[in-house]
Amino acid sequence: MSLHPLLADLRRDTGFMANVSAWQTLAARPAHTAPIPHALHPGLISALARRGISHLYSHQHQAVTSALAGENIAVVTPTASGKTLCYTLPVLHQLFSDPDATALYLFPTKALAHDQLEEIENWRLEIGNGASNLQSPIPNLSSPTLSFSPLSFSTYDGDTPSAQRAAIRRESRLLITNPDMLHMGILPYHAGWERFFAGLRLVVIDEMHTYRGVFGSHVANVLRRLQRVAAFYGSSPRFVLTSATIANPGPLAEQLIEQPVTVIDRNGAPQGEKHIILYNPPLYDPVQGLRRSSVLESQELAVRTLHSGLQTIVFARARLTVEVLLTYIRDRLKKQEHGDRRLEIERPVANLQSPISMLSSSIRGYRGGYLPEERRAIEAGLRSGEVRGVVTTNALELGIDIGQLEVAILCGYPGTIASAWQQMGRAGRTADASLAILVATAGALDQYLVSQPDFFFERSPEQAVI
Predict the structure, then answer these.
(1) Strands 20-26, 238-243: parallel, antiparallel or unpaired by DSSP?
(2) Are 271 and 431 in contact, with CB atoms under 8 Å apart?
(3) What is the pTM of this model?
(4) What distance in Å separates the CA atoms of residue 295 and residue 411, rounded to the nearest whole number?
């Protein structure tokens, strides 16, 4: 079943609709494109062509053009709008154009860093496959300083084996790390990183909106130290920052790096039709105002969407809730599997060709505390379609590539409008239709939200203050 038959079933379900306080449909939006900037390195233009990319989205074009012109930029567009390309192209252009140049990527989580490592590896393979056929070859592509050898781009965090760290310091030209490691493991030992800091040209700060409050203030100080160390070795790096939607991206970016910033916030990526539902669980004791558990309601909705063949993500606010929800969903699916072996998913799904008896085993949990290998396997399963559903904390709220999810269910309001939109944006990463359901808890803030839908749909996202 596709999404639209499910939506029709939900509208006909009087029991479901009695608990819906708001149902808004965001119309589909076409892409706004622009040509690939001619100033971009010819090798990268050829690599884009081999990837089937002949144009950029308008915000990508503006970001690349501004970065190549030497500006500090902050790209503020929704989830799945292609922000990665906004900094990948300027960084690779700089590395190919200057054999001494280096670049630094800062991500708030290890998962994002390793996700980016895979993206760079894909670029390495694409450029390597086409290097011999370029009409305008990349200068000195065979040179050790320009080649994408295994250690010329690296993650450097707490999981990096000690035996590899010296080689990374000597050879890496693109370093992927996080603010904690920069603070504790790199800046105090800058003498061992002299080559890297002397060539530092670009610093990418992803998910800028996470750097707020006291944590954001600490990160701003770390970035101040970074610039001071870079200046000591004779470099003055430019910055590319990205963020989900917040009310004050420009001021936050300028406070973090203490330099003028050009804000790019007009999204040119296409967007499929998106249905957003605010759902309030039914009262079971009207006298005392007691409502059915949001966990049980989220479980029932998730089972319903999974039975429809829709890849689903369920967000919970605590690790314990993740495990409880995961157990409930699996148990419910197993009971239904035993009750009706003939029930099958109506829509063919890649890597899932058997009856629904396999569906319960394709639901996974994802949270902090899982081993890195487990998290990587879950992310790969979501991209391939083998994992049909995932129950997670906000660990998957950030921009990890987790495939083409169709439904997002939020078990409780995450606390901010910005986070709610970010979680809802994890479904519908293509031009296809998607569904997001916010299931309210009995808490006062959740109840206010579902009783005053305009607060959610019309209010500006919060400011990020440091």
Answers:
(1) unpaired
(2) yes
(3) 0.85
(4) 6
Per-position pLDDT tens, the chain of length 466: 579 999 999 999 999 999 999 999 999 989 999 999 999 999 899 999 988 999 999 999 999 999 999 999 999 998 878 899 999 999 999 998 999 999 999 998 877 887 788 888 888 777 765 544 433 333 333 333 334 443 488 999 888 889 999 999 999 999 999 999 999 999 999 999 999 999 999 999 999 999 999 999 999 999 999 999 999 999 999 999 999 888 999 999 999 999 999 999 999 999 889 999 999 999 988 888 889 999 999 999 999 999 999 999 999 999 999 999 999 999 999 988 776 554 444 444 444 433 445 788 899 999 888 887 888 899 889 988 899 999 999 888 876 767 678 999 999 999 999 899 989 988 886 678 999 999 999 999 999 999 999 999 998 888 999 9
Which residues fall within 8 angstroms of residue 444, CB to CB, at 6 or more apart?
none
Give the rounded distance of the alpha carbon of 301 from its chain centre: 24
Handedness of CA 283, 289, 294, 295 (dihedral sign): negative
**CB of 323 closer than 8 Å to CB of 417:** no
CA distance 40 to 302: 45
Q: For residues 401 and 304, what is the distance between their CA atoms, to the nearest angstrom? A: 25
User: Which residues 6+ apart lie within 8 Å of 147 measured at CB?
Assistant: 141
- Which residue(s) pair with 176 in the sheet? 105, 155
CA nearest neighbour of 7 among 450, 354, 435: 435
Separation CA 307–CA 224 (nearest Å): 51
Distance between CA atoms of 21 and 453, rounded to whole angstroms? 7
Q: Shortest CA distance to 405 belongs to which of 393, 419, 423? A: 423
Give Cα separations from 381 to 85, 402, 405 (angstroms). Answer: 23, 8, 12
Q: Helix or strand or coil: residue 3?
A: helix
